[in-house]
TrEMBL record:
The keyword Zinc appears for this protein: yes
Name of the protein in its database record: Cytidine deaminase
Catalytic activity: 2'-deoxycytidine + H2O + H(+) = 2'-deoxyuridine + NH4(+); cytidine + H2O + H(+) = uridine + NH4(+)
Originating species: Kwoniella shivajii
Function: This enzyme scavenges exogenous and endogenous cytidine and 2'-deoxycytidine for UMP synthesis.
Statement: the UniProt record of this protein carries the keyword Cytoplasm: no
NCBIfam families: cyt_deam_tetra (TIGR01354), PRK05578.1 (NF004064)
Key words, A-Z: Hydrolase, Metal-binding, Zinc
Required cofactor names: Zn(2+)
Chain ranges of the CMP/dCMP-type deaminase domain: 11-158
UniProt superkingdom: Eukaryota
């Protein structure tokens, strides 16, 4: 179902899922072999994708979520309605790491939905179950949380004002 504050129908969510998977396939992960893709929907309807990019100096790598946010910010976008994260893991369990959760929190309101999708997400048309991502049939492919659920009692920009 669409989120009350941020309506997102099945076609828009499907586009985000496909974008996330497309960027996952572009990941540069020669060391961990753990590819991650992310897709953000901006308030004006633009979709920004990102992938993880590793580096021989491990700490210099960047995660998919931070890549997508950085691209969006550099294009003048700073308000987002949804995020999708994908990996090669067959269950929808790959969620943003700790630093990405804080990075996302800088730009996402607490009630923004964050979706984790399975590597088995079907690419042959919009699945019927996508209209009810909390339903039993969808659980094999997608998990939905809010930013608040992902990072409860978070520290955000409003804490500094």
């Amino acid at each position: 179902m669409p989120h009350e504050a941020y309506p997102l129908g099945a076609p828009a969510l499907d586009e985000l899922c496909r974008t996330s998977l497309k960027y996952r396939d572009r990941a540069y992960a020669p060391y961990s072999k753990f590819r991650v893709g992310a897709a953000l929907l901006s308030a004006d309807g633009q979709v920004f994708g990102g992938c993880n990019v590793e580096n021989a100096s491990y700490g210099a790598g960047i995660c998919a979520e931070r890549t997508a946010i950085t691209k969006a910010i550099s294009e003048g976008q700073n308000k987002f309605l949804a995020v999708v994260v994908s990996s090669d893991v067959p269950s929808p369990t790959t969620s943003p790491c700790g630093i990405c959760r804080q990075f996302l929190r800088e730009f996402l309101e607490p009630n923004v939905p964050v979706y984790f999708i399975s590597s088995k997400y079907p690419l042959g048309g919009i699945p019927d179950w996508l209209n009810d991502v909390q339903g039993q049939e969808a659980q094999e492919f997608i998990k939905k949380m809010t930013m608040e659920e992902l990072l409860p009692n978070s520290f955000g920009p409003e804490n500094l004002i």
